[in-house]
Amino acid sequence: MTTVTEQLSTTTLLRFATAGSVDDGKSTLVGRLLHDSKSVLTDQLEAVERASLSRGQEAPDLALLTDGLRAEREQGITIDVAYRYFATARRRFILADTPGHVQYTRNMVTGASTAELAVVLVDARNGVVEQTRRHAAVAALLRVPHVVLAVNKMDLVDYAEPVFADIAREFTAYASELGVPEITAIPISALAGDNVVEPSAHMDWYGGPTVLEHLETVPVAHDLTACHARFPVQYVIRPQSAEHPDYRGYAGQIAAGAFRVGEQVTVLPSGRTSTIEGIDALGEAVDIAWAPQSVTLRLADDIDISRGDLIAPVSDAPAPTQDVEATVCHVADQPLSVGQRVLLKHTTRTVKAIVKDIPSRLTLDDLSQHPAPGQLVANDIGRVVVRTAEPLALDAYVDSRRTGSFLLIDPADGTTLAAGMAGESFATAAAAVGSVADEEGWDF
């Protein structure tokens, strides 16, 4: 007889995020999903029932299953990203319930950065609004391969098919322009449970899957072993003990691809080459290791390698560069301006940098580009050109979400300013970059 543990070990894992405007019902949808799929422990449900009764509600408020912060419960909104782990017989899930308020768009970037699917909620009464377009743009930028449009609160529009059809048509046209590869529209009522886990008895005109059915069956193609092999060095291991007098290993997590003993590799940004002499994983020597394993690589030659260096196959190594052209989502309260000094964090490497140009800012209404805005403010999406003090081995984000992404950080207080995706996106190509003078030695 198959045990639960054996069942889960053979099922696939789907990481997905929810997004939508304030009061579109994201937390209620997540709560309904957990409740109806029998993924809520009895004591959790009892706690929600007690909290709901204390607030004068007769039925359990399922949104409380995810809104755990006191401020969230008081205001009835989601503020922080709430992660939930649950499983069915067909698949395991890691869910990121992200905030809907404009000022918390930055949290959606965090929650969707590793997602293979995004559920974008729309209130059937309001249709597609600016925040809906913003979330679609973020999903497209982050290369989330699957997007579900959940048209919620269908019970408040008498389950009318034309209302759903109009919203689905408008959103699909907009998301397709952004380059979202797959869009699935589902009419739901999270409060009543229609088409969340069980099919709705009120919408016989809809013949598609429920939300859970789609989550269980959507193809998951996140095989990192098929990507360019990349190994950011986190730590150099040199015990210099009597047992290991000459041991020199480079520890870290394989970001993508696979590495084999005997393979020729190059160390970036120095460009020095060597051969993998050994791979240690969990205290054992192995012949091959792949993403996302944490391992220690041993090389045949003594090379000056430190944290932040990148090891890659000689035949498939990225070209180091100091000029980074990218699309960024600005997440800080303070603006990002041309000429500003920043720190750029890429994998395990952090270097000084200057924002040389901000060629354009995306206008969400019609996807036009506002040229030369001079700065980006909170929640803006725009193109930037950054010059770094030292070469970086970046991939294009379209080729690798792990090694094509970076953060821009305020060097004064460590605040994260922007999340960046290297290379082209749905934004127009960057314009020519002019020189920015700097009097304090940051003009690289």
Explain the overall architecture.
The protein has 444 residues and is of the alpha+beta class. 18% of the residues lie in helices and 33% in strands. The protein is built from eight helices and 25 strands. It has helices at 4-10, 26-36, 42-54, 70-75, 105-112, 130-141, 161-178, 211-217, and strands at residues 12-20, 82-87, 91-97, 117-123, 146-152, 183-187, 231-232, 235-237, 249-253, 258-260, 264-268, 272-281, 284-286, 288-290, 294-299, 310-313, 321-330, 336-337, 341-346, 349-363, 368-371, 375-376, 381-392, 405-409, 416-422. The strands form five sheets. Strands 7, 8, 9, 11, 12, 13, 15 and 16 form an eight-stranded antiparallel β-sheet that branches. Strand 4, helix 6 (130-141) and strand 5 form a beta-alpha-beta unit. The radius of gyration is 24 Å and the shape is globular. The chain starts with a helix and ends in a 22-residue tail after the last strand. Mean pLDDT is 84; it is low at 1-10, 68-79 and 427-444.
Write the layout of secondary structure elements.
Layout: H1 4-10, E1 12-20, H2 26-36, H3 42-54, H4 70-75, E2 82-87, E3 91-97, H5 105-112, E4 117-123, H6 130-141, E5 146-152, H7 161-178, E6 183-187, H8 211-217, E7 231-232, E8 235-237, E9 249-253, E10 258-260, E11 264-268, E12 272-281, E13 284-286, E14 288-290, E15 294-299, E16 310-313, E17 321-330, E18 336-337, E19 341-346, E20 349-363, E21 368-371, E22 375-376, E23 381-392, E24 405-409, E25 416-422
Parallel strand pairs: 1-3, 1-4, 4-5, 5-6
Antiparallel strand pairs: 2-3, 7-16, 8-9, 9-15, 10-14, 11-12, 11-16, 12-13, 12-15, 17-23, 17-25, 18-22, 19-20, 19-24, 20-21, 20-23, 24-25
Helix pairs in contact: 5-6, 6-7
